Amino acid sequence: MSTQSPSTPPALSRTLCSALPDVPPGSEVLLRAWVHRRRELAQVAFLVLRDRSGLAQVVVREGRERLAALPEETTVEVRGRVVQNDSAPGGVEVVDPVLTPLTEPAETPPVELWRPSLDAGLATLLDHAAVTWRHPARRRSWEVAAASLRGFRATLDGLRFTEVCTPKLVGGATETGATVFEVDYFGRTAYLAQSPQLHKQQLVGVFERVYEVGPVFRAEPHDTARHLAQYTSLDVELGFVEDHHDVLAVLRDVLAGMSAEVAALGHGVEVAVPDQIPVVHFSEALSIAGAPADEPDLSPAHERAVGAWALAEHGSDLVAVEGYPLAARPFYTHPWTGPERPGAPGSNGFDVLLRGVELVTGGQRLHTPSAYAAVMAERGIDPAPYADHLRAFAHGMPPHGGFAIGLERWVSRLVGAANVREVTLYPRDLHRLSP
Amino acid sequence: MSTQSPSTPPALSRTLCSALPDVPPGSEVLLRAWVHRRRELAQVAFLVLRDRSGLAQVVVREGRERLAALPEETTVEVRGRVVQNDSAPGGVEVVDPVLTPLTEPAETPPVELWRPSLDAGLATLLDHAAVTWRHPARRRSWEVAAASLRGFRATLDGLRFTEVCTPKLVGGATETGATVFEVDYFGRTAYLAQSPQLHKQQLVGVFERVYEVGPVFRAEPHDTARHLAQYTSLDVELGFVEDHHDVLAVLRDVLAGMSAEVAALGHGVEVAVPDQIPVVHFSEALSIAGAPADEPDLSPAHERAVGAWALAEHGSDLVAVEGYPLAARPFYTHPWTGPERPGAPGSNGFDVLLRGVELVTGGQRLHTPSAYAAVMAERGIDPAPYADHLRAFAHGMPPHGGFAIGLERWVSRLVGAANVREVTLYPRDLHRLSP
């Protein structure tokens, strides 16, 4: 049976740095943390510790030579006594410390983690990710990501969606023209899934309402600030919709839930999500952007103009553009079902812009076998690789739709990062396959 | 702005099948569902509908020829009136229906989904996954998986763990001898990550406590009932531990949280998780199993014997085996720190068995740079491919440990599935890359 060895000196449980102000002054405490910074003055030295909860100050008067073995980032155990000191962070500090290193003296970090802001180029940030993420400001941007994931799932669990796990290795068919990675799969060629699109649609046939959070892969040859070879896709699909407005209503609740969890972090970061996301038709969006009426898609400049319009007209950071030209959307997109519009045939597909940048793509999908047969014939798509997928439709599917949110784009807009790589723990791109 | 078209007849919102008994008798309702079964009697026909919430019975007296266009699995909208009928499921049924098909007549499914149990071979189940998962009994086994994921995350969120997303494409170093898949990565060779082990350890240096739910990949050439080429790994890692017992304490809480969410489904499936998981040392486990004292590992038969012992002696479905021989564990495993034992050098690595089958692998890891240098020299491992990883340790890491749970193994034990493929939505193996 269990063989926990008795500790000497008598067991004292760990106090987190942020909990120190709640400890009665005079108490003995045990801290375990990183050395965030050493500051040596003439008569005294200060050791600033960092753990997952925050910072704490330790005062070292006797035996200051011990600090030589505790350079910044070394992990350490500190036993000491809590005293009040109004000029210390949190109003308390730890005195008379017994210092026990938990590892060997740490090497000097590639960036000064104790400075309030992290002054380093992108390459340094990414090359030394395991260390640079330790900086409190940088860590907060990932906390925004983690909170967003909590809010996403909590909202959908509340709406009785079922979480699913789909295969990331697929045999052939892919749903858009995106470039895919090839895998040597036991001597055959497989591909990394560029999205869970086809499987999530099939699973609407099982669970009606599904979501998945997972990695998706794009062999993006473009070296831009917005593209990654692997990103985290937040996918949703739901059945028995009237049209894409039912999908937009769920998207609105999801974004509100994500923003609420982010706001609860107290980092001063959030998106105001209105009760209803303003919706403009694609043709109106072109007109707002001052673009010719026959443009087939919105350029980034057009998106910025539409975002500015939404803020000015509706006070909203978010705006949905519906009715995109059908020809510009994937084959499974449902044709426009709203009032007739001039121009090329439209679709029930939408994009949602956050502060003028595309954040979400979604829409209503085709759901009848005859509609799939027709569109594949029209677009010259061979149905053979899609045989497994189309079988779900032959056996009865409801009208349905869904959307996908790119986690890294969402976080980068929220925290104001210029490049999605800054908010990705270990980004992968054309040049980067490590660390 | 929004262009929702007015519905005719006047809008009536959808009622789920399971909510029918709560509707006042005589009310008009709107159902949207699959045709689960048609039953034609001499004077009347019954249409049993299925939606995500359950089943409902519709009575068709007039115009029974309309049912020809509604074979099983066709999706349909039904407007009708609720009446009490004590012999109907739920005590109510819908009469005077207006039936509107939502798609074309469905093809006959490859299995009879309306039968109480699904009588089909594994190949049929898997080849027609999108349809066979619609069977209510089969769907319930995935609901166990989804509930387990909720319980896993809720427990760890409560313990202030941070969710992370690690790269699934890696450049070189892998942490065990498992066979990996090769990917053509922009003309270079990349590998699919066999686990998030190295990245999750690095991230303990940032967040102290991390978890990830995600796909992992093994190029398993074995065609067994327990192995998949892609499975869902529930990974946890935490810092500032005394030894592996701190890791086991978190694992206990996680399994209890997962089991509680599963039990709440009301499917009669759960695992009784004791306040403390019984722990036996590897040498005791060998002795319980009647194996020679110099065996290097536990065979499946040994594991069954230890599982039976835990149930008999401790009334527990779960048992942890600690102190596995160091040589049989990955290089990052921490040596045994408990009381001295006879035999080969042990480790702070453990396995947890559920009903006599390995479910979890975990333990304390090495955390000092010198320990890594020593073990790599001893095992003849070239440190160069691990340079990025080892840098995290050079810059200060706390004592830490963690574990990984295989979702599919957990679910298969809970629901009594003989093969993990039965509880995987779209399994991937040596032979299977579709649907």
Task: Summarize the model shown.
In chain A, 26% of the residues lie in helices and 25% in strands.
Describe what this molecule looks like in 3D.
The structure is a homodimer of 435-residue chains. Chain A has ten helices and 16 strands. Chain A starts with 27 loop residues before the first strand and ends in a 20-residue tail after the last helix. The first copy, chain A, is elongated and about 85 Å long. By secondary structure, chain A is α+β, with helices and mostly antiparallel strands. The first copy, chain A, has two domains: 17-101, Nucleic acid-binding proteins (OB fold (Dihydrolipoamide Acetyltransferase, E2P), Beta Barrel); 131-423, BirA Bifunctional Protein, domain 2 (2-Layer Sandwich). Chain A has an eight-stranded mixed β-sheet with strand order 6-10-11-16-15-14-13-12, sandwiched between helices. A five-stranded antiparallel β-sheet of chain A has the order 3-2-1-4-5, with no helix packed on it. The model of chain A is unreliable at 1-7 (pLDDT under 50). Chain A has helices at residues 122-127, 129-132, 136-158, 197-207, 244-263, 282-288, 300-314, 369-379, 387-394, 407-415; strands spanning 28-40, 45-51, 54-60, 75-84, 92-101, 162-163, 169-170, 182-185, 188-192, 209-217, 230-239, 279-281, 318-322, 349-354, 357-365, 400-406. Chains A and B meet through strand 1, helix 2, helix 3, strand 6 and strand 7 of A and strand 1, helix 2, helix 3, strand 6 and strand 7 of B. Strand 8 of chain A pairs antiparallel with strand 8 of chain B, so a sheet runs across the interface.
